[in-house]
């Protein structure tokens, strides 16, 4: 169950990062509100996950999920450019997350 909490926390990290972009420096109220709700939810689920997962492991996976999720969403919503080297690096982060899960 702790790993499920960690995945949820990582997904909320992606939510708040994308909402932060839409908030335009906290000048737009609804995206700003979503940013704060996403942050709160992300930290809440991370705290629940850390009850049963080591801190270093949990933090690495949490940030990795957020990085990958935000990267994918930025390509889809904002047409961010990705080159081969960047794609390989993101794949390595993904591989690291899977490896950490399989080895724990």
Automatic annotation (TrEMBL):
Any single GO molecular-function term of the entry would be: transmembrane transporter activity
Q: Where is this chain's protein located in or outside the cell?
A: Cell membrane
Tell me where the transmembrane regions lie.
Answer: 27-47, 59-78, 84-103
A GO CC annotation given for this chain: plasma membrane
Question: Family assignment?
Answer: Belongs to the drug/metabolite transporter (DMT) superfamily. Small multidrug resistance (SMR) (TC 2.A.7.1) family.
Q: How does it sit in the membrane?
A: Multi-pass membrane protein
Superkingdom assignment: Bacteria
**Organism placement in taxonomy:** Bacteria, Bacillati, Bacillota, Negativicutes, Selenomonadales
Which of UniProt's keywords are assigned here?
Cell membrane, Membrane, Transmembrane, Transmembrane helix, Transport
What is the name of the protein in this document? Multidrug transporter
InterPro entries reported in the protein's UniProt record? EmrE-like, Small_drug/metabolite_transptr, Small_multidrug_res
Name the Pfam families for this protein.
Answer: Multi_Drug_Res (PF00893)
User: Is Glycoprotein tagged as a keyword?
Assistant: no
Looking up SUPFAM superfamilies in the UniProt record yields: Multidrug resistance efflux transporter EmrE
């Amino acid at each position: 169950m702790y790993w499920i909490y960690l995945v949820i926390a990582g997904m909320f990290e992606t939510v708040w990062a994308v909402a932060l972009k839409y908030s335009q420096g906290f000048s737009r109220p609804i995206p700003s509100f979503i940013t704060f709700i996403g942050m709160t939810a992300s930290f809440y689920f991370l705290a629940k996950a850390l009850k049963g997962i080591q801190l270093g492991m949990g933090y690495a996976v949490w940030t990795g999920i957020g990085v990958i999720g935000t990267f994918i969403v930025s390509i889809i919503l904002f047409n961010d450019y990705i080159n081969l080297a960047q794609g390989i690096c993101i794949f390595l982060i993904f591989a690291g997350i899977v490896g950490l899960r399989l080895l724990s």
